[in-house]
């Protein structure tokens, strides 16, 4: 008598598992809090930024004035040498102050972004649980040709598109998801949840 073989299970088959994807870049750009943070930081650091810019303009004017001195030659003229050294010192101090300023701004932005990413992760988790997904993966930023989604074209995304064959292959290999149907993209749900819960400072 012939023995009937049991049907073979397909490798990796698990009909009970549900997977979704989310475009983190789109979430980050659409989250209203991120835009408010940028506005708040710009206002907070605007006075210091303008002060540095004014110092740079004044220093530039001083340099032009010194260069306009007839027969300016710091190698043989002690007074010219003194003026040149003063300007060089001011330039070094200004560059250090610019660096310190950028470090301060970056530190403030870093602290804000840590909280934002924590909130995005929480929103993704909440959407995943509500829709009973077992896993939510990061959606690819570009298609297999390295082009951003044409329906959501963005100048920043275009600037990041691969410029040569090496970058193209690299972007393809690093894509966490190579195919997904539109029905499993929960990006808009995550954005909606974040913005619905967000209350700008001063709002009750």
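^ Assign residues to that structure.
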């Amino acid at each position: 008598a012939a023995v009937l073989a049991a049907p073979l299970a397909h490798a990796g088959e698990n009909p009970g598992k549900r997977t979704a994807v989310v475009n983190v870049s789109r979430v980050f750009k659409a989250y209203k809090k991120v835009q408010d943070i940028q506005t708040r930081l710009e206002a907070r650091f605007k006075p210091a930024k303008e002060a540095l810019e004014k110092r740079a303009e004044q220093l530039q004017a001083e340099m032009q004035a010194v260069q306009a001195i007839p027969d300016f030659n710091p190698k043989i003229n002690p007074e010219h040498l003194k003026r040149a050294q003063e300007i060089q010192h001011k330039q070094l101090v200004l560059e250090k102050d610019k660096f310190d300023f950028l470090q301060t701004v970056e530190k403030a932005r870093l602290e804000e972004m840590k909280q934002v990413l924590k909130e995005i992760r929480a929103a993704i988790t909440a959407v995943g649980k509500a829709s009973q997904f077992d896993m939510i993966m990061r959606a690819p930023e570009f298609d297999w040709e390295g082009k951003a989604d044409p329906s959501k074209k963005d100048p920043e995304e275009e600037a990041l598109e691969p410029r040569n064959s090496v970058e193209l292959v690299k972007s393809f290999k690093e894509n966490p998801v190579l195919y997904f149907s539109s029905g499993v993209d929960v990006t808009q749900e995550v954005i909606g949840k974040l913005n619905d819960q967000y209350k700008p400072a001063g709002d009750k």
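The helical segments are 24-30, 32-67, 78-130, 155-160, 165-174, 187-197.
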